[in-house]
């Protein structure tokens, strides 16, 4: 597990060079626009509605003493909760809508790494890639929220709350790494096979997602560079695993793939 997490992180090294070498920046224009608009929208929501949510939270304090202090804390808490929910939604919205633009990027990375060997790929249209991206990310969002809601509450427990905060971070990293890896997997696996593959390689997903989430905290620049380099990093590592495990079907040898996936 820890080795795979490290591999997921290590895959980021050299991504800028690879993007420039393959001329991939032109593919990122629309995804970057989606990322910036979505990210700034959630920041604006936190800024403008933290007072409203804080006022609602402060109502649970029924005593007069300390009411003003609790109201101030509630305002910051309201902003924090909006940002946490916004971060969760942001990742999945951006990854889902960017799917048709990221799949060609992943394919170019794969062709670069594997050369001109004739591989069998699933042929998918722009619409199919978008629908799969939405399906994968809706699935991941629902599962992430299922874990996150109780963990966010538990994170406010003094001292031991830090453990739950770390779990929140790792869960977010896992599901964002899942989404980045799926841009490659959608050419080789169906929906269920992709889920199976990530479960067997969850460390790589976590490693990829750790860097992704951390980069989002870089003001403005995080919304611009995070998606491009994380997708390229995920693609290089996913292709490496597929090649090592012989999961990329060669023409006239397609029967091997389903057998290998389910082992």
TrEMBL record:
Keywords: Amino-acid biosynthesis, Cell inner membrane, Cell membrane, Membrane, Sulfate transport, Transmembrane, Transmembrane helix, Transport. GO terms for molecular function: high-affinity sulfate:proton symporter activity. It is found in: Membrane. InterPro entries: CysZ-like, CysZ/EI24. The keyword Flavoprotein does not apply. The chain crosses the membrane at residues 27-49, 69-90, 145-175, 210-236. GO terms for cellular component: plasma membrane. It is a multi-pass membrane protein. GO terms for biological process: cysteine biosynthetic process; sulfate assimilation. The keyword Cell inner membrane applies. This is EI24 domain-containing protein.
């Amino acid at each position: 597990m820890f080795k795979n997490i490290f591999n997921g992180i290590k895959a980021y090294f050299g991504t800028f060079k690879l993007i420039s070498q393959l001329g991939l920046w032109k593919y990122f224009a629309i995804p970057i626009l989606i990322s910036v608009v979505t990210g700034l929208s959630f920041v604006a929501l936190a800024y403008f509605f933290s007072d409203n949510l804080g006022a609602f939270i402060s109502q649970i304090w029924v005593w007069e003493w300390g009411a003003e202090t609790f109201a101030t804390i509630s305002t910051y808490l309201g902003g924090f909760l909006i940002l946490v929910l916004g971060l969760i939604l942001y990742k999945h919205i951006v990854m889902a809508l960017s799917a048709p633009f990221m799949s060609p990027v992943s394919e170019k990375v794969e062709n670069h790494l594997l050369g001109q060997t004739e591989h069998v790929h699933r042929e998918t249209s722009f619409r199919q890639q978008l629908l799969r991206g939405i399906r994968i990310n809706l699935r991941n969002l629902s599962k992430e929220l299922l874990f996150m809601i109780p963990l966010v509450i538990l994170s406010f427990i003094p001292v031991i709350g830090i453990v739950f905060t770390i779990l929140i971070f790792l869960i977010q990293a896992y599901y964002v790494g899942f989404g980045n890896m799926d841009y490659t997997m959608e050419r080789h696996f169906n929906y269920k096979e992709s889920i199976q593959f990530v479960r067997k390689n969850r460390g790589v997903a976590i490693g990829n997602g750790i860097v992704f989430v951390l980069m989002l905290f870089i003001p403005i620049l995080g919304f611009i560079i995070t998606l491009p380099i994380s997708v390229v990093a995920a693609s290089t590592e996913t292709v490496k695993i597929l090649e090592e495990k012989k999961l990329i079907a060669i023409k006239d040898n397609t029967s091997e793939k389903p057998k290998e996936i389910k082992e």
